[in-house]
Amino acid sequence: MLQPRPLGPQALEALPGPYLLFLGDTTEAGYAKTAYGLRDWAPNRCLGEFACEGATVTTGLRFMTPAEAAAKGARSMVIGVANAGGVIPEAWLGSLLQAMEAGLDIISGMHVRLGEIARLRNAAAGLGRRLIDVRQPPAGITVATGHARSGKRLLTVGTDCALGKKYTALALARAFSQHGVDAHFRATGQTGIMIAGSGIPMDAVVADFAAGAAEILSPDAADEHWDVIEGQGSLFHPAYAGVSLALLHGSQPNVVVVCHHPGRQRMLGHPGYALPSIEETIALALQLGSRTQPAIRCGGVSLNTAHLDETAALRLLASESDRLGCAVADPMRGGPAFDRLVEDCLA
């Protein structure tokens, strides 16, 4: 399911695993989605977690020092958080150096390149360690053509950042394959790329070429093939809407699935902005997406109900489905609601 086709996104060199997940000094769970994503979708590659003093976020994996992780077979430490701006603060450097001294390579999905930091670059050279930056787009990306492509595409879009677009795309791609449908998950962010082994980090592409990158990500395919594309940001986000729109125009999705975290009222990292409603998000996605895909439709809604118990979650899914008049599911809970979402997306 996760292997790229020819002419698709460039595959990464195999990342050295198993991993020790590094959580920095993070106190906001929404910024640790890389660590959570690897824990949930690549558990066999994750040995434990490590963090700086003051961190309150945890994956629930065993806490290990880099030396302990190396002794148990870890080969690298993955920076498992993505803060605003993708920077590597001074407070993290001691932990990163400690990992290299223990024999671990460093894998990063941050905007700042590891080799741009002199202390890390010099230490890696002296210790024989590798600094691996995942957030690097391929060379030769061109501006979008807007030309229609063969095959079918599904894009997850969100009311905000960090609420389930990647998980929804992964779950749908897996479900499509289980239904006998030829489908690929297409990663557009650092975590998805680490999980899938290929993809294009959309937020690292120069703006004029972002829609073109989305075209490269999902090239011509057989008529019945589905590319399930990981969405980014939100069309309503004051900082990241440009990436969202480029993905929407460039991927030309036949189907969008709107992702939402019920109960969240303010934009992550931008509390001065309220979240749009699900209905507003559907309407805007269809309006803007129809520019390059006139047949675009909404296949349903994905709700992140991790904060609810099962009874409350199922009640909410049912009531929202009735209210919105479409399939509403939590892909991580599965069940009949998710089965309906899959069927409606494929219809």
What is the beta-strand fraction? 15-25%
End-to-end CA span = 20 Å
The helix/strand class is alpha/beta
Instruction: Return residue spans where pLDDT drops below 50 for at least 5 consecutive residues.
Output: 1-8
SSE order in H/E notation? Answer: EHEHEHEHEEHEHHEHEEEHEHEH
Strand order of the largest sheet: 7-8-6-9-12-13
Report the C-alpha radius of gyration, rounded.
20 Å
Which word captures the global form? globular
The largest β sheet comes out as: 6 strands, parallel
The oligomeric state is: single chain
- The tally of beta strands, per DSSP, is 13
How much is the average pLDDT?
A: 93
Number of helices: 11
Helix fraction, binned, reads 25-40%
Molecular structure report:
- The strands form three sheets. The chain has a six-stranded parallel beta sheet, with helices on both faces. Strands 2-1-3-4-5 form a five-stranded parallel beta sheet, sandwiched between helices.
- The protein contains eleven helices and 13 strands.
- The radius of gyration is 20 Å and the shape is globular.
- The longest helix has 15 residues.
- Strand 4, helix 4 and strand 5 form a beta-alpha-beta unit.
- 50% of the residues are buried.
- It is an alpha/beta fold and 347 residues long.
